[in-house]
Amino acid sequence: MISKIYYHKYQLSEHTYLIGTTEKGLSFIGSRDQGIQEMEQFYYGVQLVDDEQMTNKYANQLKEYLEAKRQDFTMELDIPGTKFQESVWNELRKIPYGETRSYTEIAQAIGKSKSVRAVGSAVAKNPVLIVVPCHRVITKSHKLGNYRGGLTMKRDLLTLEGAID
After folding, report:
1. CA of 1: how far to CAs of 27, 105, 119, 128, in Å?
2. What are phi and psi of 108, to 5 degrees?
3. Which pLDDT score is estimated for 2?
4. Can you give the pLDDT at residue 135?
5. In terms of DSSP bridges, do strands 26-29 and 137-138 run parallel, antiparallel, or are they unpaired?
């Protein structure tokens, strides 16, 4: 159970990103240009402390990714979820940079082929956008589908990675 999150807003690649961490690891990356309310929806009642020093190392890796200088993240995560959510999030982290998978493929990969909608729900509850690359999940008909950060952000991330034109 998380009781305190250190957060800070960063201006990266023409957008503002809110990054949150605990003593154990990264716990939140917000959608572009959103406020602290988005983090409060994920971590209702948790003490929030603005602390740039605690979030800098995570911001540096995110900046490198957004500048196309990094493809993989090397950071600890602290993202509590159900066992099912954690299995989905772990599978998302296996999707290589520049590739996509469908919700159906994720469901099959975790051995829950009939749970495509539940996979979609778990993807939507991912608190660390980009690092747990939910933007790489598309529909089986190769449409973008939904994304907490909005379809423009999803399209931009997939274009950055060369997954779409």
Report:
1. 12, 31, 23, 17
2. -65, -40
3. 92
4. 97
5. unpaired
Alpha carbon 8 to chain centroid distance?
16
Residues marked as catalytic: 134
**What tens digit of pLDDT does each residue of 27-57 get?**
999 999 998 999 999 999 999 999 999 999 9
Which is nearest to 28 in space by CA: 14, 15, 16, 43? 43
**12 neighbors 64 (Cβ within 8 angstroms):** no
Residue 19 burial class via C-beta count within 10 angstroms: exposed 0-12, middle 13-18, buried 19 and up: buried
Q: What is the pLDDT of residues 70-95, one digit of tens each?
A: 999 999 999 999 999 999 999 999 99
Does residue 68 register a pLDDT over 90? yes
> Under a CB-based contact definition with an 8 Å cutoff, are residues 132 and 147 in contact?
no
Q: Give me the helices (H) in the chain, please.
A: 36-42, 52-66, 83-92, 103-109, 116-124, 151-161
148 within 8 A of 154, measured Cβ to Cβ: no
